[in-house]
Predict the 3D structure of the following.
Amino acid sequence: MIVRISSVIVPQARLQPYLENVQSVEIPVYQAADGMVSVWLLVRTTVGYAEVRTVSLWRTEEELERFLQKQLSASAGDGEGVIAVEVRNYDLYFSGLGEHQQELPK
């Protein structure tokens, strides 16, 4: 399994519209992709800006690469003042579930 982590820096004033766009446009594309196991959207706010990370889990590197080839021209990071940060891919070494699992917020 492959974990892909991508990040953007978004001005605080543009954060809510950016997140709404990612959640309504980009996340459904991830969810429909062959080989995509799960996707998370993480937000860390600071004074004046926020870091938004997309973490996705893929069955194989080949399926991830096919998805990326289709997505090269479409990116939610193309907004005004949005800065893309280096993307990293990792091999998943271990995954475990907690004893007290509960439903995640939507």
Q: What stands out?
A: The CA atoms of residues 3 and 57 lie 5 Å apart. The first strand starts at residue 2 and ends at 11. The domain at 2-91 is CATH 3.30.70.100 (Alpha-Beta Plaits).
